[in-house]
Amino acid sequence: MYSIPKKLSRVTVTALAGAILVSCGGGSSGDTSNSDGGGTIVACSVADEKQRFLNYMRDNYFWYRDIPTNVNIAAYSDTYALLDGIRSSQDRFSFLLTEQEYQQRYVNAEFIGFGFGSRVENQRVFINYVFDDSPAQEAGIRRGDELISINGVAVTTLIQQGSYNSALGPSTVGFSVELGWRKPNSETFTALVSKDFVETNTVLATDIFTVNDKQVGYFVLNSFINRTGADLNSAYNQFTGVNELIIDVRYNGGGLIRYANQAATQAAGNNVIGNVFTRYIYNDKNTASNQTELFQLYEGIRQLNLDRVYVLTTAASCSSSELIINALKPFVDVVVIGGRTCGKPVGQSPRSICDKRTFVVNFETVNADFEGRYFNGIPATCEVADVLVGDWGDDNDPLLLAARNHITTGSCQTVGTQQDSDTIQRHTSDDTLPRRATIVEQWRQEF
What we know:
Blueprint: E1 21-22, H1 46-60, H2 79-86, E2 95-98, H3 99-107, E3 110-113, E4 116-121, E5 124-130, H4 135-139, E6 146-150, E7 153-154, H5 155-161, H6 164-167, E8 176-182, E9 188-194, E10 196-199, E11 203-211, E12 214-221, H7 228-236, E13 244-248, H8 257-268, E14 276-282, E15 291-294, E16 308-313, H9 320-328, E17 333-338, E18 346-348, E19 351-353, E20 356-359, E21 361-366, E22 382-383, H10 398-409, H11 421-425, H12 439-444
Parallel strand pairs: 1-19, 12-13, 13-16, 16-17, 17-22
Antiparallel strand pairs: 2-20, 3-10, 4-5, 5-6, 6-7, 6-8, 8-9, 11-12, 14-15, 14-21, 18-21, 19-20
């Protein structure tokens, strides 16, 4: 599993492109500091890092007014604890990464593991997705499979004992375990699988299929990191002549805004280019930073010029995923299929402080019609539960089936799938997905 500190349990990323700043500056009269002995604060010691972070928060945090007037930073063991102690009650999203974690996941787009993302339901583990060319994919594990054993011990037993994560072992190249899994058709398999560097491709699947006389493009977009621009081009390059487009962001916890813009602009093309994609609104100390971003292709090449876009969502669709929907709404028809999204209409401009990258909320986002503040999530046009029935593009996938039906009829219809009772009982609804299902929570479920 990719190691993310426990302190990062309430987080997501909607990082403003290119906004990497350097911390400096004085203190606040109501705060008390600490030192590393002798009364002198050592540069980038724990004490210095906490003080720098508090200074930054008082000036740049979107909800800075909610920070206590007097903060005794000596009462907090580190900067993670300080963030948890002073964050606003409205803030489910701010977090910190080490520079190594930032470089690994955002820049290098990799982690050491088996290469699958999963979810736990009723003390059972199911595979949400598998990264290309990963050890898990090479072993034959696919989306929709159930992980049933690790080194011969039942997964349900390991979960009950609280030892499931440890059974999967450390983030060490070459660490091997025997995994057992069950396919949706009840076939079971076992294989010795070894951890390796996993490249986290952000487009997990791409397809074109026919609905009546229409060519429909479909792709699964799993996150927005540095490689997403190229991944989007690879997907859109396949969509020559499509009449409709389905963007599947059901597990996408967010990331870099510029790639949400690219994804939306490549879909709607001339219907949106040059218009307002989003407005960034900072706190009243930083109104000079307010700005408007226009729809633009960024790294994109092919544009589709569609006047309708389908987006598949769950409560795990967060941040930049939601921006695709909110930004397109004033200009084209956006049909949302699935569940209410996570509710993050705010974002972060990352700041380097010592060996940390701070991702604290700095601004809110509104669209061309000044619509935002969707802290309760964006509701689905057609509400459909996410049921794991097989790999991406399966004909019985309820969200994809509902989108096909809407393309055919122009309305939401009850979706019927050929499932056994076990599959029906283990669907994921908005009530069972965590409301904090953001990008770092997403990483926590990747092994």
